[in-house]
C-alpha cells in the first residue's frame, strides 16, 4: 500500500503525462488509482488495453542518507539515562535548552545583543564557550565582539596575562575586543615600546583601567611618552589609573618618570629596577607634584596575587592558553635530544622559558622604589612575609572576597528578569 501511495504521488508530480488508468490489487480486491487526489477507490476493470507508463518514464531509487551531524542534532533533543534495571530511558529536553543550543551553535551570526537580558546572555556565552566557539580564528572573534560591546565588564572585568606573551601574540585581536577592564596584568611579557597592545591601552575602550601592571616589559622613555600622550594632550586615555607597576624596566630614566606626572589620580606606583640616575630628585618630584610618598616596605598592591582573570570569559582565556600549549607540544621531543647530548658529553645550549622573578638584580641596586598616597586607605599596607602575618593575609583575602560578593549582589539588583520570569522560562 505504501508503494502504491508513493507511486501515485510520483505520477501526480508528472501530471502532464497521459498514463491512463492504473489498477492495484490489494487483499484480493482490485483498486483504481485516482491520479487527481492520490486516493484509492473501488472500480471494475475496463476491457480495453492500456499503457501503464509512458516511454519517457524513469524510476530512481531514493535512500534515506542522513549525515552524522543531522543524526546528532536529532538525538541532541533527548537526555538518555538508565534505570535501576539497566533499561535505556530518554526524556525530551526543555525548549529553552534546545533554543539555547541552537543559538550557541550559530552564535557568530548574531547581529547584536544590546538590550538583551544579561542572565540569558550569560547562559548563552557559557553554552558557546563549552562548544569552544570563541577559539575559532574568524568566527570566534566576531562572536566575542558581540558580547563585549553589549556587556563590557561582565564578559571580563579583570585580565591577567602575566608571562603569557604567546597568548597575546596568538589572540591579540580577541584581547583588544575586551572593554571596560578595570585590572590588566601584562607583567613579564617583553612587549617593548612599539607593541600594538600598548598602543591599544590609550584607546577609549580601556579608559576604565584602574590597575595596570607592566613589570619587565622592556619599556623605555619613548614607550612612556607614547602611552601618556593622550592624557597629557587631550586629557583622555588612562585618566582613571590608580595603580601602576613599571618595575624591572631598566631603560626607563628620570625623563620617563616626568611623563607619569600627568596621572593625577595615581595612588600607588612601583618604579623599582628602573634606570634612574638621581633617585632622590625623583622621589622629591613625585611627592611635591602628585603627592606620592616613598614607601619603606613592599606594598601589597604590587604582590601580583590579587590580579586574576574574572568574568564570563575566564574559561575562554584558559582555552586559548591550552591551545597555545597544544601547538607547542612537538617541541617536547627536543628533551630526548638534549639528554643524548649530555650522555655523549657534547655541550648543548638549553633554551629555558624566561621566568619573571620577584626581585631583579636592578631592583637590588636601586632599592625599593614604591610610592603611595597617605590619604588613601588600603594602598600603603605593607606586604607581610612573616609566618605570624599569614593570618592577616587570609583575613584580607576573606574581606576581599566578601567585598566581591557585595559587588556582585549589587550588580544583580539592576537585572531585568525577575523570579516570575525565570519560572516562566523553566516551564518551556
TrEMBL record:
The keyword Signal does not apply. Keywords: Leucine-rich repeat, Repeat. It comes from the Eukaryota. PANTHER family: LEUCINE-RICH REPEAT-CONTAINING PROTEIN 42 (PTHR31994). Belongs to the LRRC42 family. This is Leucine-rich repeat-containing protein 42. It comes from Regulus satrapa. The gene is Lrrc42.
